[in-house]
Amino acid sequence: MNKSDEEILQLFRNKSTQSQAFGLLLKKYQERLYWQIRKIVISHDDTDDVLQNTCVKIWKGLGNFHSKSQLFTWMYRISTNEALSFLKDKQRKSFGSGNGELEELLLASLESDPYFDGDHAQLELQKAIVQLPEKQRLVFNMKYFDEMKYDEISGILQTSVGALKASYHHAVKKIESMLKLNEV
């Protein structure tokens, strides 16, 4: 039986059913969180690490969740922030002072990922997405792949709907341009 987010939160508030509630929460949202993180960090192995950290943060923060936003929006924001922090750490470790290009790391991860099973067109699309600025990449993935509404994205990224629409528009134009350049 699927429980509502509110029912899961009520179970979590009771010490004797906290573990059960967290298990229900993971069962309900873990796959969506995995794919959100995967679109940001690209690598399956890195995604697993970030998802673990995300789950720990959700567990620690769930008791303080006050329903000011939807539960999934809150969890999505945590997963997004964890993924972005992971990339910044990875960039700093790979390039020292942070002068290196994150794009290089993501492209290398994409090209060497044994779990990527897309065709040539999908690979080219992913390469174009990886080259977008961070905000445009996030907005494009959430809007295009996750089919999220701008209001939902606004809650996650904590930015205006107008700015999101502009970011998405610019991302689409850049992706189209990059794909045209790569046509054979």
Describe the structure in your own words.
This protein folds into two domains: 1-100, Orthogonal Bundle (Rna Polymerase Sigma Factor, Chain: A), CATH 1.10.1740; 118-184, Orthogonal Bundle (Arc Repressor Mutant, subunit A). With 184 residues, the chain is an all-alpha fold. It is built from nine helices and no strands. Helix content is 76%, strand content 0%. Residues 123-175 form the RNA polymerase sigma factor 70 region 4 type domain. Belongs to the sigma-70 factor family. ECF subfamily. Residues 25-92 form the RNA polymerase sigma-70 region domain.
Rg over C-alpha atoms, rounded to the nearest angstrom: 18 Å
Q: Order of helices and strands, N to C? A: HHHHHHHHH
Strand content: under 5%
Give the overall shape, derived from the CA principal axes.
Answer: globular
Distance between the termini: 51 Å
Largest sheet: none
Number of strands: 0
Give the total of domains.
2
Query: Would you identify the CATH architecture of the largest domain?
Result: Orthogonal Bundle
CATH superfamily of the largest domain: RNA polymerase sigma factor, region 2, helix turn helix motif
Total helices: the number is 9
Brief sketch in words of this structure:
The chain contains 9 helices and no strands. The protein has helices at residues 5-13, 18-41, 44-62, 71-95, 102-112, 120-130, 134-145, 150-157, 161-181.
Short key terms for the protein model shown above:
RNA polymerase sigma factor, Rna Polymerase Sigma Factor, Chain: A, 184 residues, mainly alpha, single chain, Arc Repressor Mutant, subunit A, 9 helices
